[in-house]
Design a protein that fits this description.
The protein is of the alpha/beta class and 119 residues long. The protein contains 3 helices and 6 strands. InterPro entries: Di-Nase_FeMo-co_biosynth (IPR003731), DiNase_FeMo-co_biosyn_sf (IPR036105), MTH1175_dom (IPR033913).
Amino acid sequence: MKNIAIAKDGNIVSEHFGHCEGFEVFQLGDGKIENRFFIENPGHRPGFLPVFLSEKGVHVVISGGMGATAQALFGENNIEVVVGAQGSLDAVIEDYVAGTLKSSNSICEEHMHAGHCND
């Protein structure tokens, strides 16, 4: 079983994982979605979310944007990072399952924003 967490706002991918409403977690087995559930964002605190999601069994995190430090911390917690994702949760997870979702590897450097971290 592989757990994929998508940072979300409503039914779309959040532009910045740390400020999202929460994470839709998709459990994949045998190349298909077997289950999904929601984890509320417990709050944006530097260095907290990578450990929090690791403890929840997450293997991959998908977001629109994410800073360099967060990306490094996810790596230290053995969580793959995919950034640059846009659109509906269902479309993004379908692309991930199909192997067509690729990370833009972009780094969010602006933290005085309200969801403009997709550059």
